[in-house]
Write a structure and sequence with these properties.
Helix content: under 10%
Strand order of the largest sheet: 1-2-3-4
Number of helices: 2
Distance between the termini: 28 Å
Strand content: over 45%
Number of strands: 23
Low-confidence stretches: none
Length: about 280
């Protein structure tokens, strides 16, 4: 698992962070190809890393903890505890805007890196609206926690309802919603600010591995062990389109930031592109 330093903090972005089975997190310089520093506090495998928009790096581990690190010096800021089993996945409320930087759905390109950093900062500020970024974690203990890790080590909400392990959690691009994909064959929708339960989406006949949002936060796509992708409407809470085509389990799905299409990869060794 890797994550790049956000565009509103550095452009061109040279630094990225990686998490490893050796229990460590490392920050690298992509230009010099050297490790700048190593962060070690986890006692088991690191499962996920995220580089936030407020100068912090987040890591989850099979040691049941989430660590918050200073991105400049690599110092441990705080540890978030509460999960009773492996923490599998992390997601930030700023995820979409950190991923896209200065680029929105119109595809207009900034004239130079300075303008790009400025636009990326404006887009980031618009998403957080003066509030600290939120983090959601999903675990093998069937639960999720919502955190404001920049300011507190106490969780904002404990999110329960799944009856098997949680594979993935992800915030909608506008930060209003959280989706969770689980081995219990369901996807659950949660309030992204309060952490309260909203709805369950059921139609898959196998574990759901991944979900991905459309850029307007109105639709999402899911990929499952049942070999299908499904597109869902958040407003109506209904299945919109069933997408068979893979010959085996669908491990990965992603929706392009411009909204034009979906990519999926499966156990059948095939990568498929779907046009929206």
């Amino acid at each position: 698992m890797q994550a790049w330093e956000p565009a509103h903090k550095a452009l061109p972005s040279r630094r990225f962070v990686s998490g490893s089975k050796d229990n460590t997190i490392r920050v690298w310089d992509a230009t010099t190809r050297r490790c700048l520093f190593t962060m070690s506090s986890h006692t088991m495998v690191v499962t996920c890393v995220r580089w936030g928009g407020e100068g912090l790096i987040y890591s989850s581990s099979r040691d049941c903890s989430i660590n918050v690190w200073d991105a400049q010096e690599g110092k441990l800021v705080r540890t978030l505890k509460g999960h009773g089993h492996w923490v599998n996945t992390l997601a930030l409320s700023t995820e979409y805007v950190l991923r896209t930087g200065a680029f929105d759905h119109t595809g207009r390109a900034p004239e130079d890196p300075q303008e790009a950093m400025k636009v990326a900062q404006q887009r980031y500020d618009a998403v957080i609206s003066g509030q600290p970024e939120r983090l959601v974690s999903g675990s093998d203990d069937h639960t999720m926690f919502l955190w404001a890790p920049a300011t507190s080590k106490t969780h904002l909400a404990r999110m329960t309802g799944h009856v098997q392990l949680i594979n993935q959690v992800t915030f909608s691009p506008d930060g209003r919603w959280v989706l969770s994909a689980s081995f219990d064959k369901s996807i659950k929708l949660w309030d992204g600010v309060k952490g309260t339960f909203v709805a369950t989406f059921r139609n898959h006949v196998g574990p759901v591995f991944q979900v991905a949002w459309s850029s307007d936060s109105r639709l999402f796509v899911s990929g499952s062990k049942d070999s299908t992708l499904k597109v869902w409407d958040v407003r109506t809470r209904k299945l919109m389109v069933d997408l068979p085509g893979h010959a085996d389990e669908v491990f990965a799905v992603d929706w392009s930031p411009d909204g034009s299409g979906v990519a999926s990869g499966g156990k059948d060794k095939v990568l498929k592109l779907w046009r929206h």
